[in-house]
């Protein structure tokens, strides 16, 4: 297991390094002068020259790349051209809210998608199977922003069951101020026992998290169904049925565990996809996550901030993928020797 872990850590480090280099090269190919963006369109030639020197834009590309990599390792991700703040600090403030939203969506997907996949496999070819497959395909096919708009208009605006937008009721800042430890509001509220803000956050989280969960739920349900059906054709399943176990027992007691291995591998992919999808959902529900920061950065051609967001997403994907691989290895020992 240790050897497997070291091999996966080396692969993860290689992927992160490749993404950093590629991001740097792409940012340098984007049209526009970062010095003009930073100093402003009315800056004089002398001010632009001074800004270019401060940002290191007069150095050769290899020197700029080396300085960039060295700074990243030291925790210096550059200065945002539109907020004039440290990029890592900006991302550290915004990213936990996105992580809270996407994490909740993926948890919903796992809790709903796997049981749906088991039911579909158990009742294969019957109306229940058909209903689950159609619902799953709809969840995968419908654009996430359309689902978000529908949920907001129906359940928040017309029915008034849930809040329209925001992370929690801002009036609670006066009556129940929240002490921040992780910048993930629900977690901080739970840690500090701030039940008013926890309840308000969960209510505000319900609709955007459900919209984000639609795609991964459909994918997880379909993958679980396919993996279970394949497992049910194996020799061990025939032997278990011959020993008197019911089809339901064979599925849930003997086939589900090996069938979860490909489902876990898929979770890393859907997590990264959901993280990017969350940018649209955050805009619709005014969720204070990374999406707003990324959109502002793109509008202002803020190369350091765009690069920071890209690296943060890539790093998150690599970490999630690594955790999924370790979970796969724990569930299925055959994975360690591949």
TrEMBL record:
Domain of life from the UniProt record: Bacteria
Any one biological process term the GO annotation gives: transmembrane transport
Record key words, sorted: Cell membrane, Membrane, Transmembrane, Transmembrane helix, Transport
Xref: InterPro entries: BPD_transp_1_N (IPR045621), MetI-like (IPR000515), MetI-like_sf (IPR035906)
Location(s), subcellular: Cell membrane
Primary localisation category: membrane
Pfam families linked to this entry: BPD_transp_1, BPD_transp_1_N
Membrane topology: Multi-pass membrane protein
Annotated TM spans: 12-30, 101-120, 132-151, 195-215, 263-285, 305-324
SUPFAM superfamilies, A to Z: MetI-like (SSF161098)
GO cellular component: a single term: plasma membrane
PANTHER family per record: DIPEPTIDE TRANSPORT SYSTEM PERMEASE PROTEIN DPPB-RELATED (PTHR43163:SF6)
Designated name of the protein: Peptide/nickel transport system permease protein
Record lineage: Bacteria, Bacillati, Actinomycetota, Actinomycetes, Streptosporangiales
